[in-house]
Amino acid sequence: MRGPVERLRLRAGIDLPEPVAAHRHPLAALTRLHARQLFTYRGDAVPGSWQSVAPVADLATAVPSIYNAGLGARGTSYVIHLRPDVYWDTTPARRVTAQDVVRGLKRLCTPFYRSTALPYFLSTIRGMADYRDGHPASLRTAADLAEHANTHDIAGVFALDEQTLVVELDHPAVDVVDVLALPCASPAPVEYDAFLPDSPQARAALRSTGPYRPVFDGGLRFEPNPAWTPESDLARGQRASVITVSPDEPTPHIDLTVEGEPTSTLLGVDYLVLNPRGPLSEHTARLAIADAITRTAHTIIPPGNDGHQATAPAQAGALPAALSLTLAHPDTPHATAVAVGIVADLVAVGLTIVSRPLSPAESHRAVTGQAGDWDILLDSWFPDWGHDNARAFLLPLCHSAHSPAGTGQRRVDELIDAALAALDDPTRSTSALRAAELHALADAVIVPLAFRAPPAPSGQVAALSALGGLPDLTARTPVAAGPVPSPRRISEVSR
Amino acid sequence: MEAGLRARSWSEIRSLFALDADATHLNTGTVGAMPHEVLDVVDRVTREWTGGLLDVYPPGLYPEHRAAIGRSYGVDQDEMVITHNATEGMARVIHGLDLREGDEVVTTSHECYSVLSNLNLLRHRHGVVVTVVTLPTGFDVRAEDVVERFAAAITPRTKVLAFAGITLFTGTMLPIRALCELAHRHGLTTVIDGALMAGMLDCDFRALGADFISCSGSKFQCGPLGTGLLYVRNKVHPEHNPLPLPAFWPIISTWYPMQGTPPPRTTTSVESCNIGDFLQSAGSASIARGAALARACELWDEIGRDRIERRVFELAEHARTAVAERFGTAAMYSPGADQRLRSPLIAFHPFRDPADAWNVKKVAEFVSRLESEHRIWTRWTEFDVEGSPHQHYAARLTTHLFNDHAEIDRAVAVMGRLAEQMS
């Protein structure tokens, strides 16, 4: 899509999530239309340039730094000032406050929905894990949840006043601004207290801070948000008078249901999780599976991302006879095609494989460790930010507290924890993460298959490399045709 | 006139300074006030050297100025450098040290940003390990508490102790000689950020026992902005520092030898080279600012550095007592019980609610309203506190020779009323 259009037609599903559930959601690109975060990225930056992965202020007036007194010298206390000109599309329009940001972060900890991005927050922000764990099991209703939120605090997140927020960290973390730029860290208005997070009721009552607001009228369309002004938003624009969304759109400008030519310059990884709690509990069996599958990737962190190491030693294993396994995979064209190849490889070595496609919701439950009824899980993981991002792979995939398998090696956990405690020293943290990766690979619970760039929708649209290749339907200017070479090294095996 | 300055009253000396009569300047910790005469030197020398008809390079080495200033601090011309500011001096020292991967530097989280920034650069560039100690804070802190923190952080890989002579955030005068002796016992190089020392303390740099001391020329010394002093130990006086001279690379230098190497560093009290010249020679210099800084130092000698130090600290004790009476010793981040740690910088929490200590907006507003509503200039500072997860913010006042008791009393009274109003 080039230049402004009167009516932008999208082919996509219409089950728009609440922002708290936007991470890895197929419609996360639509969330960017109506939800702003403290920080974000520019969709109009040259792909591959440093500007494309550098966070910029969004709801905030500036990226906090020691220079602007937004960051203490110890590196664990951030003072974030909010713009005074960002409003909810309420009647009358109401200013977005620091308390709304606090509410959004509390909502992210809800026991009723488990975000795939949660590991970043829990391991970084002081008291967030305690807050998440402090929800009593007796909570049942939205009122219960709101009552809990209104009487308990995240120790390291507090509002000084309506326009000023303090975020304190357990350890210095140079990537915390990127973490707070994730769409799931959007503020939540007080109206959301009436709904359980990402419930149908919440989805039907979404409020907007972005350039558009969703309108549900049997279908889904986005109309300009009257409470939004271009002067208040340095990253997003309104390029269409209305945006219509339908899974059956016959002539879409942009089709979010197909995977077009990648435009993001940061690679992710297709990987398998071999469930150590079932027939693959034997280490040697997992090694044999890893050995039997045709793979082009042998590390979890792809080239071009911080912490990538060129090679990892392979180990041989042995398969027990007559094993019958379930292979779960997202029900997408790409995952289905990859699954077909895996089945072929494993059948060839004498295994019986049942392939089970997963809906997005089922896939989310499996990846977040909430469903373990599979022996092999196929998924993809793309980097959530573009610099100092080794932990963006290893923490969610390999740490036992967060991994899809729900288990892991103690040594891997120790190394990742040591890295998180030293994020202000990339030499030490990257070294620890590389060691963790080697241990994880040797354990063969996580088996990398191939590196690939995040898929882009058909139709020309900017990709936000730093948000896992999220398409940016709000980019202010048309992107250049075709990506320019990245300053980061990209291996040929990744394509 | 010159001989008379030592005998002049403080109110007469106050008249030497370009101060706004309606303003109360309690922020020398950030920048001092120039004497009129120093201002005149900047102007006169700038005019003298404008036109490009003179050879600008020889005077840029400031041989006479450095010798005179050196004498004031008990050191020689080859050990004294006129720099652009304390930050430049610290950066040239930190990056001139012969540190390698795995070597450790012990410093504190209460250092100036420019020190921590340069150490972080060293960490990334060479793999040097930077161990950061959080200094104790509060009225009752003792010098031994500080030395213990440093001693506990030293390992067999430690090569350098880097610390502020007086911390800018809490105004803690570190036990400099004790820390240098600790360094001597472990064979460590000592790098002191002395930004607040010059012009405040009547001290013998050599006797402190440090290897490097980088000072500001525009804070307590009241020279022009963009001036500083750097002491580089260039000879061995065992009674002060028995260690050999550290390997040191005078980065940014015109006259470091272009062929061959300088002589080996001396092991005696006689220098083997003029390390000061190596550092001082860095292209064309701001001759006017150097001359003005030298004049400010002369004025200090004429008034009497011992007399100035006594005055500054007597005013500080007056202010400390007033602050303690008004806000309580529990509100004070600056040491008070241990006289060795006191400085003329006094940091305190002005509000009733202790939680306001991590409310930067409220503390900043307090300082801002002192300026806008009462024409009292202080500043707010930020630092970490042992055992607290929060970044703390404090109001800080600084006394200098041009202040007087009445304005300090008035300022503390105003602060008390404003804090009450804002609490």
Automatic annotation (TrEMBL), chain A:
Residues 75-228 form the Solute-binding protein family domain. Belongs to the bacterial solute-binding protein 5 family. InterPro entries: SBP_5, SBP_5_dom. GO terms for cellular component: cell envelope. The keyword Transport applies. Its main location: other. Residues 475-495 are annotated as: Disordered. It comes from Actinokineospora terrae. It comes from the Bacteria. It is found in: Cell envelope. GO terms for molecular function: peptide transmembrane transporter activity. This is Peptide/nickel transport system substrate-binding protein. GO terms for biological process: peptide transport. Keywords: Signal, Transport.
UniProtKB/TrEMBL annotation, chain B:
The keyword Lyase applies. Residues 62-335 form the Aminotransferase class V domain. Pfam families: Aminotran_5. Keywords: Lyase, Pyridoxal phosphate. One of its GO terms (molecular function) is lyase activity. InterPro entries: Aminotrans_V_dom (IPR000192), PyrdxlP-dep_Trfase (IPR015424), PyrdxlP-dep_Trfase_major (IPR015421), PyrdxlP-dep_Trfase_small (IPR015422). SUPFAM superfamilies: PLP-dependent transferases (SSF53383). This is Selenocysteine lyase/Cysteine desulfurase. It comes from Actinokineospora terrae. The lineage of its organism: Bacteria, Bacillati, Actinomycetota, Actinomycetes, Pseudonocardiales.
